[in-house]
Amino acid sequence: MVTLLNTELKIGIEQALGRAKTSLVPVLVSEVQKVDHIEPLSFFAAGIEKYMGERFFWKDPTEETVLVGMGTCKQIQSINGNERFTETQMEWNRLISEAIILKEQEKMGTGPIMFGGFSFDPLKEKTSLWSKYPDALFHVPKYLLSIIEGQAYLTTNIICTQHDQLSIVDQVLEERHSLLSLASLVKPFAKSRLIEEKEVVHPSEWKNSVRNLVEELKNGQLKKVVLARELRLIFHDEVSIEGVLNKLLEEQKGSFIFAFESNGDCFLGASPERLVKKEGNQLFSTCLAGSIARGKTEDEDAKLGQILLNDQKNLIEHHYVVEMIKEAMEQECLEVRLPEQPTLLKTRDIQHLYTPVVGIANPDCSLLLVVNSLHPTPALGGLPQKASVEKIREIEALDRGLYAAPIGWLDYAGNGEFAVAIRSALIQKNEASLFAGCGIVQDSDADSEYVETKIKFRPMLSALGGF
Ligand SMILES: C=C(O[C@H]1C=CC=C(C(=O)O)[C@@H]1O)C(=O)O
Ligand SMILES: [Mg+2]
Questions:
Q1: Mean pLDDT calculated for residue range 311-327
Q2: How far apart are CA 295 and CA 305, in angstroms?
Q3: Residues in the active site (predicted)?
Q4: What is the model's pTM?
């Protein structure tokens, strides 16, 4: 258990109440404390009763940053289509400009942060599948556990309005105490029991849409379109989000592991693909496209890797992504660096062509606006960007919602990171939708692309106990 000093928080709240009474706008107080290690998944599980539907989980591939949020002290959302990035950034800036932040040192990922995501395409006709997730949805948590380079920090965020009294301090301290006590009790994480697995679109129909698309790619200006499909699973009981996260953490170590709850649903996954990270004036992006299976032996695995590195179809599929990301990053940066040739990035189930991109950001750069100009890259949408998204909107029998879209976090200093939400699933009580797509180019073969999507379902299928 962790004991905390609480004097500072009281002073901060007193100040915030004063400010809220004069300015008549709610004021955010954020207190950060260094704490003894808390197991992130135990902290997440500790919120199962009180904060279910208001939790998030994030771990980057290097485990430099782990974030677990609990409760929602402020929700930021936008239903305003293409303005959703700008609107979200502006609302965040407004909240932060008034905030009172109590912390001893500057540490990225501690203090006030918001976590959330954007939809893939706000113009796609909506189905009920994603009714819990508007086109932009972000949560500022009440309690945030951050593990930054191995050190644990606990942030407490409180919104003070003109109507609040100083007594809210006692309430918060009591709530926080019981959350931390629960987090110290490690629980076994339940496994899900699968009953039925259903391909939402019949395989032959999906392959036909790939074949038709290939014909169009040969004759038109479109160079690449990413087509996805959905797998719907039914379980005996409600899926245990903790259980799934536990397996993802075990099996998908080199990936971003994320979970984002909203009103009883949970969107989670293990994505190997960074969209963009901002740390001070540095920007990092990733081109990840072009895929092949893992080998059963080391030798076979290396051979497959070599095949991928020399395969024209996959190199072109990858090159389109590099071309677009380089161009977009050059708009945002004073300087951009990237290697000339891709290398391999391997996860448990698949290997990809990989090109990292690094840049020095323009002085006026803000993370969500970079997200806006990158999304969707041709690894998720296609090339040219606008025409490929229109094509997906027209032919894909799927409501992507947050699949293949940016998911991540932003802190008060403007730092943060977004991954693209692939290898992901939407959990709805005892049902789940899994998503997987692949980049279709002129030389695509429908059967091979279908097999590629099957491989891309594996991380989530395995975590859900179905493989
Ligand atoms: C769209 C997905 O993967 C993308 C990322 C890496 C490789 C890809 C590919 O080779 O097609 C895809 O562009 C997905 O996993 O659903
Ligand atoms: Mg591919």
A1: 98
A2: 9
A3: 224, 273
A4: 0.96
In the predicted model, what is the mean pLDDT of residues 415-439? Answer: 97
CA atoms of 409 and 370, how far apart (whole Å) = 13
- 27 alpha carbon to ligand 2 midpoint, in Å? 47
From 226, 304, 400, the mutation candidate for ligand 1 (largest count of ligand atoms within 8 A of CB) is 226
164-200 pLDDT, tens digit per residue, is: 999 999 999 999 999 999 988 767 677 778 788 888 8
ipTM of the assembly?
0.99
> In terms of Cα–Cα distance, which of 74, 70, 50, 73 is closest to 154?
70
224 C-beta closer than 6 A to ligand 1: no
Cβ(242) to ligand 1 under 6 A? Answer: no
CB 426 within 8 A of CB 266: yes
What are the two backbone dihedrals, phi and then psi, of residue 317, each rounded to the nearest 5 degrees? Answer: -55, -40
CA dihedral (187, 188, 189, 191) in degrees, to 10, reads -160
Point out the catalytic residue in the list 242, 261, 273, 396: 273
Cβ of 352 closer than 6 Å to ligand 1, yes or no, is yes
For ligand 2, a single-atom ion, which residues have Cβ within 5 Å?
A: 291, 438-439
Angle at 59 between CA 55 and CA 63, to 5 degrees: 150
Q: Is the CB of 407 under 6 A from ligand 1?
A: no
DSSP 221: S
Within 236-361, strands assigned E span 256-262, 265-271, 274-279, 282-293, 333-337, 343-346, 350-361
Residue 3 has pLDDT above 70, yes or no: no
**Rg of the chain over all Cα atoms, to the nearest angstrom:** 22
pLDDT of residue 2: 40
57, 59, 153: which is closest to 102 by C-alpha? Answer: 153
Secondary structure (3-state) at 8? helix
Q: Is-catalytic flag, 205?
A: no
Tell me which H or E stretch contains 34.
Answer: strand 27-35
The region, left, alpha or beta by phi > 0 then psi within -120 to 50, assigned to residue 326 is alpha
